[in-house]
Design brief:
699 residues, alpha+beta, Growth Hormone, Chain: A, Immunoglobulin-like, 4 domains, 6-stranded mixed beta sheet, Solute carrier family 15 member 1
Length: 699
């Protein structure tokens, strides 16, 4: 078809579906950990990066299985089945109704959900990692030797399918996740957010199987990684056996393998190890880069995503693939030629060094954004403290005196204070003075809690009592919370949109409830058997908490007043764009250049070894993050960002020093030299054989 083997179209479609499946699932994974499984940020980050590390460790296993045992086709087929099962298990594990026997919206046995989720993620890591080194190589196998141009076009289409799958899934699955679904209670729709990627993986598998009769299947020919590993292992063992001074030293420690392995393999291994030595500092870059899906996503949950339409926190990751698609051609066709025209020697290793520096700057930018976010966070009571908020429901002012002589506060009619912090061991009582009367209320507060005290005189007593808010952090769902106080003299049923707050007696307070879509207004209704009043609410924003006072009803129009218990997110998500821009620039300079440099410095038959080494640096980078997240005692997130920026800067300097001692080589010239020597040796052997034959014939 158009000069291409028909089979490659099945491979490209398969790759698109698989990448959609992987990136779609990965986009919502961190919020699944924190919001559904209720893990804290550090533990969620550690598990997320453990999963990513596994995804980049298993390609080595996949390559060995494909090259030494099953072949690429069977490896892709079998591991895709494992992959699809893993996605399905993860989707089932995210169903809250699975063990929600009391139908309250929360799993009764969360351990079942956790176990299924972890089994699913392990299977996904084995599947996606195992097929990673096989699919592109299998596509390359479909072409004949004379089809170089078509093969090059295929790899471009292949790369495009990866980016298209990543872009679409990162846009779509967070939107699905933010929608509500459920059998008994409506909540964020993780089963569907994981279910769609599972369906796409099943489609990828079906498409791959449909094309099976058209594929060119190359038999396993042995894995060069194993040969290199054996060569290195033998050299080390042989050197250890001959460590005595009576044995002469050899030019290079790998030369101790010459008793068993030919000179060409030893020389190729030397070239590979020179590049792998430069890989040692690289994991630190990936430790920074892969936090887009963990720490940066969690940072976005505390930000305002209103762009005229609502952007979900996990959708901000889409900025990276969009910028990659835009920047790669710009850098290749404009920036690099301009640098070359200025006669600057911008070598691949220098590009990688600049990329690491820009990655460090990206985390400095993230730290600056985090400082601004922290300024908007409410102050919650520390150990030994409690907080009280006063709401005066009277039509006259009131004075509140916290005893013994701690604080005196004047509160206007139908007004409220902010939260005031007190030492629980010192605060004993509250004395209220107003035109309606005076009263002293004894206080017994639990440390670490927030309380609201709505005040109104009723029959020479004030009512209601002190109310515990049960909020000690920003809303876990990322949405806003709303509750109502009924200041009417009779009981009413209160609803807001589809949310029912139940019947509120006079001066009673409802529980907080999540606002499903805080970015839009709702109809608020208060009604009884002979009474109905309504009003449109305001937009609540994300991450806030509000108390709404139902005060009066005039001509069926409800009079309400808002008290802000917690400010909504105000720092805009657009402030994350600079850090994404810097990190994408870093990726273009570091990742794209790094692979190009690696391939240019190694023999053609050793590229798989370098790919394995490169993927291993990604895995180690993620292990660094999970160690820091699990062991760090840093409490401020901005300080952790600064720590990573500083570590990457130090590693950048070390890499620059290592790179300055590196001498670029041309592997083709070295291999040509070996080929020439081998031909000369073959010719010499042939001449010797001819002479021996001639001598024999004379005898």
């Amino acid at each position: 078809c158009f000069g291409f083997p028909l089979s490659i179209f099945f491979i490209v479609i398969n790759e698109f579906c698989e990448r959609f499946s992987y990136y779609g699932m990965k986009a919502v994974l961190t919020l699944y950990f924190t919001r559904f499984l209720h893990w804290d940020d550090n533990f969620a980050t550690a598990i997320y990066h453990t999963f990513v590390a596994l995804c980049y460790l298993t390609p080595i296993l996949g390559a060995i299985i494909a090259d030494s045992w099953l072949g690429k086709f069977k490896t892709i087929l079998y591991l895709s089945m494992v992959y699809a099962v893993g996605q399905a298990v993860l989707s089932v594990g995210s169903v809250s109704d699975l063990t929600d026997h009391n139908q309250d919206g929360t799993p009764d046995k969360i351990a079942v959900n956790i176990a299924l989720s972890m089994i699913g993620l392990i299977l996904i890591a084995l599947g996606t990692g195992g097929i990673k080194p096989c699919v592109s190589a299998f596509g390359g196998d479909q072409f004949e030797d004379h089809q170089e141009r078509q093969r090059s076009t295929f790899f471009s289409l292949f790369y495009l399918s990866i980016n298209a799958g990543s872009l679409l899934s990162t846009l779509i699955t967070p939107t699905i996740r933010a929608s509500e679904c459920g059998i008994h209670t409506k909540q964020e729709c993780y089963p569907l957010a994981f279910g769609i990627p599972a369906i796409l993986m099943a489609v990828a598998l079906v498409v791959f199987v449909i094309g099976s009769k058209m594929y060119k299947k190359v038999k396993p020919q042995g894995n060069v990684m194993l040969e290199v590993s054996k060569c290195v292992g033998f050299a080390i063992t042989n050197r250890f056996r001959h460590r005595s001074k009576e044995f002469p030293k050899r030019e290079h420690w790998l030369d101790w393998a010459s008793e068993k392995y030919d000179k060409r393999l030893i020389a190729q291994t030397k070239m590979v190890l020179r590049v792998l030595f430069l890989y040692i500092p690289l994991p630190m870059f990936w430790a920074v880069f892969d936090q887009q899906g963990s720490r940066w996503t969690l940072q976005a949950t505390a930000m305002n995503g209103d762009f005229g339409f609502q952007i979900q926190p996990d959708q901000m990751q889409i900025v990276n693939p969009i910028l990659i698609v835009l920047m790669v051609p710009i850098v290749d066709s404009l920036v690099y030629p301009l640098i070359k025209k200025c006669k600057l020697n911008f070598t691949p290793l220098k590009k990688m060094t600049v990329g690491m520096f820009l990655g460090s700057l990206a985390f400095v930018a993230a730290a600056l954004v985090q400082v601004q976010i922290d300024k908007t966070y409410p102050v919650f009571p520390a150990a030994g403290q409690a907080q009280i908020k006063l709401i005066n429901l009277e039509t006259v002012p009131a004075t509140f005196q916290f005893q013994p002589q701690l604080l005196s506060v004047d509160v206007a009619p139908n007004d409220a204070t902010g939260y005031m912090t007190f030492e629980t061991s010192k605060l004993q009582s509250l004395h209220i003075i107003s035109a309606s009367g005076n009263k002293t209320q004894s206080l017994e507060l639990t440390e670490g809690e927030r309380y609201t005290f709505p005040f109104k005189w009723v029959s020479q007593e004030f009512s209601p009592d002190l109310i515990q808010d049960n909020i000690t952090s920003k809303p876990e769902s990322g949405k806003s919370l709303v509750r109502f106080i009924n200041n009417l003299p009779f009981a009413v049923n209160v609803t807001m949109g589809d949310m029912e707050f139940g019947q509120l007696a006079p001066l009673s307070v409802s529980n907080y409830k999540d606002v499903p879509k805080p970015g839009r207004p709702y109809d608020i209704s208060a009604s009884s058997s002979q009474f109905h009043c309504g009003v449109h609410s305001k937009k609540f924003g994300y991450g806030g908490a509000y108390t709404i006072l139902i005060d009066d009803c005039v001509e069926n129009q409800l009079n309400i007043k808002y008290f802000e218990d917690m400010a909504p997110n105000t720092v805009h998500m657009a402030w994350q764009i600079p850090q994404y821009f810097l990190l994408t620039c870093a990726e273009v300079l570091f990742s794209v250049t790094g692979l190009e440099f690696s391939y240019s410095q190694a023999p053609s038959n050793m590229k798989s070894v370098l790919q394995a080494g490169w993927l291993l640096t990604v895995a180690v980078g993620n292990i660094i993050v999970l160690i820091v997240a699990g062991a760090s005692t840093i409490k401020e997130q901005w300080a952790e960002y600064v720590l990573f920026a500083a570590l990457l800067l130090v590693v950048c300097i070390i890499f620059a020093i290592m790179a300055s001692f590196y001498t670029y080589i041309d592997p083709n010239e070295i291999e040509a030299q070996f080929t020439k020597e081998e031909k000369e040796e073959d010719k010499k052997d042939q001449d010797d054989n001819e002479k021996e034959t001639e001598v024999d014939s004379r005898m």
